Amino acid sequence: MFSATQISKAQFLDKARQAREERRGLKERERAAVQIQALVRRFLCRCRLQREIRKEVDDFFDAGGPGPVKRTALSIFRTARKLLFVFRMQEDKERFEKLCRCILASMDAENDPKVWYVSLALSKELMLLWIKQVKAVLWLSCEFLKLLKPDILQDSKLVNLHLTMLVTFTDTSTWKILRGKGEALRPAMSHICANIMGHLNQKGFYSVLQVGPCSPSRCSQCLVLRASRQCRCSPVRGCKY
């Protein structure tokens, strides 16, 4: 009888233990299900947000039709922030090319400070964000240059685009905002260029730009001429500067 009581007690304890394990397992499964659902919802939300942002970027570039459209520097800045937030090399390649062309077009505008992309460097609220954005954009241009082959016609056009971006924002000589009375701003702007150039150097700027026999690491003048399609360096003798 005593033995039967012990067996009954052992069975009771075993059933209680099994019940606890089942409840613990159920809670763990519920917790795992909640985590999976949260991850899926976050993924779907992120995908939806990325689609919306990319659509806004596309709408910005498509606005006004195929002809030249003057866009304010601030609108370009905001669009660039959106694109950089969701940027993926393969998916956003064409968008980034449009952004570069849009920025360069703004720099070529005549007598319109609100259009010049570089004018945001004069804003106390936006200057640091603008510098950070320029650094990010220029380094992406460097990343694309790594993948491009200058001997291919289409790639050579893109090489010129990205080199022009690099030349434009590492040298103040073409900045129309510095003409006339703006000449007083040149030292400050040159300092910003030096800051940007230092950032690019730290990330490997010159090693990226070694295209063919002309090596910008040996000659900055050659880089400028390449961007303006005036490079006359010999493929045999190399860079002449």
UniProtKB/TrEMBL annotation:
EC number: 2.3.2.26
One MF annotation (Gene Ontology) recorded for this entry: ubiquitin protein ligase activity
Keyword field contains Lipid biosynthesis: no
Pathways involved: Protein modification; protein ubiquitination
Pfam families: IQ
Flavoprotein among keywords: no
Alphabetical UniProt keywords: Transferase
Biological processes, Gene Ontology terms: protein polyubiquitination; ubiquitin-dependent protein catabolic process
Catalytic activity: S-ubiquitinyl-[E2 ubiquitin-conjugating enzyme]-L-cysteine + [acceptor protein]-L-lysine = [E2 ubiquitin-conjugating enzyme]-L-cysteine + N(6)-ubiquitinyl-[acceptor protein]-L-lysine
Protein name as annotated: HECT-type E3 ubiquitin transferase
Protein's organism: Varanus komodoensis
